[in-house]
Every structure is written in structure tokens, then in C-alpha cells.
Design a protein that fits this description.
By secondary structure, the protein is of the alpha+beta class. The chain is built from 12 helices and 17 strands. The two termini are about 30 Å apart.
Amino acid sequence: MTAAAEQIAECGGRGQSLRVRGGGTKFEWGTPAGDPDVVVSTAELDRIVEHNEGDLTAILEAGVPLARAQQEFASAGQMLALDPPLGAGAGATIGGVIATGDSGPLRHRYGAPRDLVLGMTVALSDGTVAKSGSRVIKNVAGYDLAKLFAGSFGTLGLILQVVVRLHPKPSQSVSAIGRSGDPDAVARGASALAHASLEKECVDVRWGGGEGAALAQLGGETAGAQAEAAARILADAGLEPAIVEDDEELWTEQRNGQRSSDRAVVRVSGLQAELARTIRVVESLGGSLVGRASLGISWVTLDPSRIGHLRRELAPFPCVVLDAPREVRASLDVWDADPSPLAQRVKHRFDPAGVFAPGTFPV
């Protein structure tokens, strides 16, 4: 970590622009900017420093692949409750996932990356190595760097190391899915699942080609019985229910729906109550959708030429463009947001030289 911090300080002193690269699976996200003077790789920051099984915490360097960390935690019956798409070669790193705020279906129960990071060590462009938080879960002292850097897209500094909260890995999982060609029925089923008193790991929706589904994953020793209860809820909502005992592929498809190599993927931050309308708009534009039903967050895949239509139809919901050809991202505001004076002040505080990822984020 010392060598990385020294490299950052040298770049800052020279005023060289730089971008941080982890596994490279989300390196193209954000506003296209000119090539940086330096690309800082976290590939050598790949140690699982500590895995404290008794405390359900771990300390990881930023370049640790998330898949490798999960294998380590699973050997102790634990997990880091982050399950975003891992990209080519399962290359996503813990630092990259936190920096981009990426998440998967487990966000329903366990929250976003910012909710699972207890502490963080970062290197700033003036040579400062700053640390906040600890492995103690109830920690209220000090400035919360972790929440500030989560989702900052590497524009504030280099994440060197994180302390994360772990959870017990469910002994088994069973899923219930209800299918329908009626957007209102899918939305009604998703809402009923979200409000049901069941041990739900995930509650998702999907839509594409004129048909959709609401689905829930139940975990633990009673997963089967709870899945049957969830299926009855879906039937009452007017959907055609089914139980899926071997459900890994089902949820892999949900995660895969958040990325595309040849179309545009737009993340819509809407409302649960507006799900049916969102589905109809997506259907009218020839797109498809996966989403976290109870959170109102959807990932819409569609032809890049329809992004403007999507934004107009769903305004004022923020529609952030994630995957899209570079020329498309260069032709529009990928963030669908104006620069914030508060974000500008934070950027100036942590990166006064303005060397970290200039031009990729609205500050």
C-alpha cells in the first residue's frame, strides 16, 4: 500500500491526471474523458488481510477479486452480501465494486456496498493516507470516509483497503417465481412479495418480450416452506407461480440483465409504486428490464437510440447510462444530473489538484 500511496503522491505533485483500474469490468462507465496521464492498477493490492470469523468482519485490499473473497468466506459458512455482475472472467474487485456502488439482487435485504463497509483506508493526491472506521460494527466516531468514497467512481482518491461486514451464508435457498404478460399483475405480485413477512434474501422483477415475472429467493432451513408461501402470494396476485429449488441459474440471469456488450443499459432510480408504468414504457421502446422490486431500482436494456425517449417518459426519475458505446456516452449526459455544489466542495477538499478521473463525474 505504501508504494501505491507514493505513486499517487508523485502524480498529484506533478499535476498528472490518473484513473484507478481494478478488474476493468466497469472502466468504461461514466462520462468519456481524455486518456489519463497515468492508470493506477490495484492488481498487486490483492491480499485478504484478515478474516475474523467470530466477528463476522474481514479486511481486504482493494484489488482482491470479489469471487475469491467469497470463496474464502464461504469456507466458514459466511458471505459478503454483494452480488453484482462480476464481468469478464469474474474480474470485478472489491475496490471497483465499492467505488462504482454496484450491487445485485442481495441489495434487497443487505443494502448497497456503502452499507457493508465499516472502514476504509485511502490515498489522496496530496500524499495523505487517510483512514476511518474500524472492524467494530457500532462505530460512530470520526468522518465516514467509506460512505463518501462508495460510488465516487475513483474521483476522490485511491481506495487501498476496506473493512467489511459479513453475514452468515444461508444453508440453502429456494425461490418462488410468478409469471405474467400483464405489467400490473407483475407489479402487484412484486409489491405483495416485498411486504410479506417472509425471510427473503432477494425480491426482483424482470420483463422482456411481452412477458415478465416477480420472483423471491428464500433462505435458511425453512426456505422450502417459505417459498411455497411466496408462490401462494404470487398466485393470489394473479401470476402463474412456480417453485425453483435449484435457483442459481435463475439469479445469475437477473444479474446478467444488468450488463450488455452490444446495447445500452440504463439504471433507473424510480418508485416501487411506478413499476407497472416503468414496464410499459420499456415495452413500448423494445427494451427489457430487471430490477429490485422493493427499492424501485431497475436496469433497462435497450437500443442506444431510445435513451432519450426513456428519459422523457420516466422523468423525473434519474436515468444513469452504464453500458453503451463510447460515442453514445459522449453524445449525452450519462449521469442525467447537473453538477452539485456540495459534490464540488467535497471533490476540492479531497482532490484539490483535480487529478483523479477528471471529467468522468458531474463535479
